[in-house]
Design a protein that fits this description.
With 238 residues, this protein is of the alpha/beta class. It has one domain (31-52, 73-234): 3-Layer(aba) Sandwich (Rossmann fold), CATH 3.40.50. Helices cover 38% and strands 27% of the residues. It has ten helices and ten strands. The strands form two sheets. The chain has a six-stranded mixed beta sheet with strand order 6-7-8-3-9-10, with helices on both faces. Strands 2-1-4-5 form a four-stranded antiparallel beta sheet, covered by helices on one side. A hairpin with a 2-residue loop joins strand 1 and strand 2. Helix 3 packs parallel to helix 6 (140-152).
């Protein structure tokens, strides 16, 4: 298995405030890797640095063998990192199908575009049923499906998800996380940021725990699920 993403001593400052304090992190191809942590731990800041929405203050980010730290976000997306953002950010004035087309703006081949539509509609049949509906009429869960589907339309080498369980009912979270496993099985590498530690560790291969901008622990998910410190901090004891 080869490494698709590596962060080496990455730092991010907002003025005098250090949001990320020198983190090292790696994502292996074909895995689901999780970044866990409470609000304010630096999870979303880490994703923004990876996606090029923020420039790191120090350190290096390498994706697919190429240095990407400091590159603009649209260039990073063209290289194959597609993100489903926190709070979904679907384009409410557009239909479901139009939203999905926006995600495929880098795709030049009609065959690839068609294949991506088929993939998304197979993974999320509800989106196919609502293809011509305005996305503003969708439920929260359907909007989350749309945000993930839109990211998949760009044929990502790395699918990045920011808090996909946020504000969703437990049954919907289970559905979406089961779909993430299918996406991984189809060959797409996933980096997921979540507060919902237990559910995420059940589907992830490897996880990093962020606390106040530093990685406090990391390891294989099945090992972290047994870690007393993690259980106490995030899962409320045994």
């Amino acid at each position: 298995m080869s490494e698709i993403l590596r962060l080496s001593n990455v730092k991010l400052n907002y003025g005098p405030i250090a949001a990320i304090k020198g983190i090292d992190l790696a994502v292996e191809e074909g895995q689901i890797v999780a970044i866990l942590g409470a609000n304010g731990a630096g999870k979303t800041s880490t994703l923004k640095v990876i996606s090029g929405l923020l420039k790191p203050s120090a350190g290096e980010i390498v994706f697919d063998g190429k240095k990407i730290s400091g590159k603009p976000a649209h260039k990073i997306a063209q290289m194959g990192i597609m993100q489903s953002p926190e709070e979904r950010h679907v384009l409410i004035g557009l239909t479901v199908e139009e939203n999905l087309r926006v995600g495929a703006y880098n795709i030049k081949s009609k065959e690839e575009l068609q294949k991506n539509f088929e993939r998304v509609y197979t993974l999320f049949p509800r989106l196919k049923e609502r293809a011509k509906q305005q996305s503003s009429t969708l439920s929260g869960g359907e909007q989350q499906m749309l945000a993930i589907g839109r990211a998949l339309m760009g044929s990502p080498k790395l699918l990045v998800l920011d808090e996909p369980s946020l504000g969703l009912a437990p049954l919907l979270i289970k559905d979406i996380f089961n779909t993430l496993v299918k996406i991984k099985e189809e060959g797409t590498t996933i980096l997921i940021v979540e507060q919902n530690a237990l559910t995420t560790l059940k589907i992830a291969d490897y996880a990093y725990v962020l606390e106040l901008g530093k990685i406090s622990m990391h390891g294989k998910s099945e090992e972290l699920l047994k870690d007393e410190r993690l259980i106490a901090a995030y899962l409320g004891g045994k």
